[in-house]
Amino acid sequence: MHLDTLRDYCLAKRGATESLPFGPDALVFKVRGKMFGLLNLERLPPGIGLKCDPERGRDLRERFRGVTTGPYLNGRHWNLVLLQDDVPDTLIRELVDHSYALVVAKLTRKERAALDAAPEA
C-alpha cells in the first residue's frame, strides 16, 4: 500500500485528524484527540503503528512477517504493520478500521455523541 493511499484512508474516518506531535517524521492520526495510527515517514520499509486487540495482535505477528512490535509502541496493544511486505492491502485497511474502532469504543459517551454528530469525511 502506498503512503498517500494509507493517509487518505485514515483521514476518511469520521472525525479523524492528523498532526506531527513527535516531529516531522511521525504522522499521527487521531480521533477526538486519541491516537489510532502512527506513520513513520522516514522508516524503510514504511510502516504504521496500529492499536490491536492483544490476542489478534499475537496471531497476526505469527502469521505475517510484516506485522511486528514497533519501537516506542506497547507491544501488547500495538503492532507495526509494514506496508511493503506480506500484509495484503485489504488487511491493512481492516487493521486501520480495527484500531479506529478500539479507540472510539473507549471514548466517553459525550465524545462518541459529538463524533456521531460530526460530518462524514
What features would you highlight for this structure?
121 residues, alpha+beta, Aspartate Aminotransferase, domain 1, six-stranded antiparallel beta sheet, 4 helices, globular, YjbR/MT2646/Rv2570-like, MmcQ-like protein, YjbR
Give your account of this protein's structure.
The protein has 121 residues and is of the alpha+beta class. It has a single domain, classed as Alpha-Beta Complex (Aspartate Aminotransferase, domain 1), CATH 3.90.1150. 37% of the residues lie in helices and 24% in strands. The chain has four helices and six strands. Strands 1-2-3-4-6-5 form a six-stranded antiparallel beta sheet, with helices on one face. Strand 2 and strand 3 form a beta hairpin. The longest helix has 17 residues. The radius of gyration is 14 Å and the shape is globular. The model has no long low-confidence stretch (mean pLDDT 92). It holds the Pfam family YjbR. It comes from Rubricoccus marinus.
Number of strands: 6
Number of helices in the DSSP assignment: 4
Helix content range:
25-40%
Mean pLDDT: 92
What summary fits the major beta sheet? 6 strands, antiparallel
Strand order of the largest sheet: 1-2-3-4-6-5
Q: Unreliable runs, pLDDT <50, ≥5 residues?
A: none
Determine and state the CATH class: Alpha Beta
What's the layout of helices and strands?
Layout: H1 3-11, E1 16-19, E2 26-31, E3 34-40, E4 47-51, H2 54-63, E5 67-68, E6 78-82, H3 89-105, H4 109-117
Antiparallel strand pairs: 1-2, 2-3, 3-4, 4-6, 5-6
Organism: Rubricoccus marinus
Protein name: MmcQ-like protein
Pfam families: YjbR
